[in-house]
Amino acid sequence: MPRFLAQAVPPYTEGMRIGLLGGSFNPPHQAHRAISQFALKRLQLDRVWWLVTPGNPLKENGTLHELGERMQAARDVADDPRIEVSCLESVIRTRYTIDTINTLRRRLSGLRFVWIMGADNLAQFHRWQHWRRIADQVPIAVVDRPPQSFRALASPAAKALARYRLPEKKAALLADQPAPVWVFLTGMKLNLSSTRLRNPDGSWKGTK
Predict the structure, then answer these.
(1) Neighbours of 79 (CB within 10 A)
(2) Which domain holds residue 84?
(3) Backbone angles phi, psi at 59, to 5 degrees
(4) Does the pTM of the predicted model rise above 0.85?
(5) Where on the phi/psi map is residue 79: left (φ > 0), alpha (ψ -120 to 50), or beta?
(6) Which strands make up the sheet holding 112-118, listed edge to edge?
(7) Where does the record place the Cytidyltransferase-like domain (predicted)?
(8) 184 - beta bridge partners?
């Protein structure tokens, strides 16, 4: 692995089951942590990597805080040795999930990855760059975020991938399944969003 890339990849050992949670983390919050810990337990993962993106192609990035600030804030919020924070997408110079997954699968073929997203992201998954290729390359765990459940499960992507849905009771097997495969996880009680934690000027609530 090139040295510049190795510096952006968290520590790992061969065979680990790694959950990938991508986002702008603008700001990071307790729901990010809760979703990660929920996924660690339900999916029987060894680690969750937070991939802090330089910018989301589907969002307005004018109020996006500097990457270093978001990285440090994410580390402070994570506060769990099983959750690692990475700037991989900045290092490989991409904002697209498909590029991130291609890089990780090519360079770290000995790891078993699961892409983690909230139900709100499933609702718009069909708008992601090469979303079908993403689904073909990595198992996906969708964490329910009421009241998004119906909209998410009625979305174009959910309908297109319906026959690949794994029963929730088999969630612990997800990381071992060949893609395409996905599971919809229910039972998460905490429902925060970064949007609700930003002031109109883009500053983070509770900070100067």
Answers:
(1) 9
(2) 3-197
(3) -125, 160
(4) yes
(5) left
(6) 83-86, 47-52, 17-23, 112-118, 140-143, 182-185
(7) 20-198
(8) 142
Catalogue the E-assigned strands of 68-167.
83-86, 112-118, 140-143
Assigned token pair, 62:
């004018």
Residue 23 to residues 51, 150, 179, Cα–Cα distance (Å): 6, 23, 22
- In tens digits, the chain (208 residues) has pLDDT values of 776 677 789 999 999 999 999 999 988 888 899 999 999 999 999 999 999 988 766 555 556 788 989 999 999 999 999 999 999 999 998 889 999 999 999 999 999 999 999 999 999 999 999 999 999 999 999 999 888 889 999 999 999 999 999 999 999 999 999 999 999 999 887 654 545 544 554 554 554 3
**Considering the domain boundaries, does residue 205 fall inside one?**
no
Pair of tokens at residue 112: 């078993």
Place of tokens 């609700």: 196
Residue 202 belongs to some domain of the structure? no
Could you identify the residue written with the tokens 């992601």? 128
| Residue 165 C-beta-side C-alpha neighbours within 13 Å | 15
- Whether 113 and 105 have beta carbons less than 8 Å apart is answered as yes
Domain presence at residue 204: no
User: Residue 29 CA to chain centroid, in angstroms?
Assistant: 14
Q: In CATH, what number is assigned to the domain containing residue 16?
A: 3.40.50.620
Backbone angle region of 25, left / alpha / beta, with phi > 0 → left and psi within -120 to 50 → alpha: left
From residue 80, alpha-carbon distances to 8, 35, 50, 106 in Å are 18, 13, 12, 27
3-class state of residue 61 by DSSP = coil
